Amino acid sequence: MTAPRVAYFPDSFHEVNGVAHTSRHFEAFARRRNLPFLTVRAGHRPQPLIEDGNVWSLELPRGILSIPLEKDLRFDPAYLRHLKQIADVLDRFQPDLIHITGPSDVGLMGAFLAHRRHLPLAASWHTNVHEYAARRADWFLRLLPKRHSATAGCKIENLALATAAWFYRKAKVLFAPNPELCALLERSTGRPCFLMPRGVDAELFHPAKRTRSLDDPVRILGFVGRLSVEKNIGLLVEIEKNLAQKQEKIQNQEKFFIVGHGGDEAWLRERLHRAEFTGVLRGEELSRAYANMDLFVFPSHTDTFGNVVLEALASGVPAIVTPDGGPRSIVRNGETGCIVPDAEFAPAIREILLDPARHAAMRQAARAYAVTASWDAVFEGVYAAYARVFPAAEQSAAAD
User: Fold this and answer.
1) How does 379-397 read in b/e, with b if 16+ C-beta sit within 10 Å?
2) Could you tell me the strand order of the sheet in which 97-100 lies?
C-alpha cells in the first residue's frame, strides 16, 4: 500500500526534551525513505515553507502572549492566528492523516484542523501530564494538613488523567512509548494504542567516545535531563549524602556529572557538593559526556520512556532507574543496570562500583542491548499502525 501523506504537529521540535528528540528523528526517517511528510511546528521566528522533495516543514513563531511551561518550552494561547497560513499549506500538501503529540498549542491546532477537514487523527502520548500535574502541585499540597494532602494529590492526578483521556479520545489511533501506558490509554479512551518507543543513534553514542581511563579512581555518576521536581532530582542529593557516610574504599571518589538545565538547577547546585554542571550538551559533546560516565543515575518516576537512558546504555554505561515509568522497560535488571526503589539507589551504586568484574560485564551488556534499538524500526512500526487509519482516509477521499 502507498504510504499515507502525514501532517505532523509536534508539541516541540527544537527544544531539549523527548518529544523534540523523537520529532527530529521522525522527520529524518521520512527524508531517508522519501515519504510524503509535513511538519508543522513552533519556532522562534517565522520561516517560509520549506519543500525538500516529499518532506515539507512549516515553522511559525509563538507570540508575546505565550506562557512559559519550562525553561525552553512555552504555550501560546493565540497560536490560532496562524490558522489560515497552516490551512493554505494543508490545501497544497493534501494530507491523508494528521498526527499530533499532545494538547499543546500546536497539537490543539492539529486536532482542530483534522476535525474540520474530516481527516483521521493519530495522537502520541509522550508525557505523563497527570503525574506532572501532581508533582507540580507539591507546593500547594504541603500547605494542607497531612491527612488531606495525599487525597488531594490523587484527585489532582485523576482529574488531569481524565482531562487528557478526553482529549486523546478525539484520535482514531494512539501511540505510547511503553506497554503499561498503551494499556492505560486503551482503558481510558477506548482507542487502539500501539507502541512508539524511542531509538538511539548507536554510532553517535558509543563507548569509544570515552576520554577518561577506565582505571580512573574517580567514579562519575551521570544524570542527563531537565533539572526539575518531576525528575525527582532531590534523590541525587540523598544519594551523595548516603555514599559519603560509608567507609568503603570508594568513599569520596564519586562525583556527579549533571547535563541539562531547568527551574530547579540553582537548588541542586546548592546541595550537591561533588558535582559538575555542564548545562545542555549536544552532538559529540554529549556523546563524550555519556561515555565518560561510570554509572547513569536516573531517579525519575514520571518519564514515559527515558531516551537518555538508552543513550547511556549505547555509550556502555549501566543505568540505575526506578520501578516506575518507562525507563524500567529499557533496563534489564542486574544485566544492563538496576531497577530499584529510591532508598536502594545508593546501595546499588556501591555494589556495582565495588565489583569491577560485574561493572565491566554490565558495560558490555548495556552496549549490546542498545545497538538493537534503531529509529528506523520505531517509525516502521508507526507506519504499520497507520495502516489501521489509512484505508478510512482513502474511503473518505473517494467520497469527496
Assistant:
1) beebbebbeebbeebeeee
2) 50-52, 55-61, 37-43, 6-9, 97-100, 121-124, 173-176, 193-195
C-alpha cell, 330: 529499557
Condensed to tens digits (0 to 9), the pLDDT of residues 256-300 reads 999 999 989 999 999 999 999 999 999 999 999 999 999 999 999
* pTM, rounded to two decimals: 0.74
- Check whether residue 58 and residue 125 sit in a common domain: yes
**Does a structural domain hold residue 1?**
no
Residue 316 and residue 239 share a domain:
yes
Q: In 10 A of CB 133, how many CB atoms?
A: 19
Do the domain assignments include residue 147?
yes
Radius of gyration of the chain measured on its C-alpha atoms: 22
Residue 275 and residue 202: Cα distance in Å, rounded?
Answer: 27
Can you give the residue range of the structural domain that contains 344?
207-370
Count CB neighbours of 245 within 10 A: 9
CATH number, residue 156? 3.40.50.2000
Q: What are phi and psi of 325, to 5 degrees?
A: 80, -170
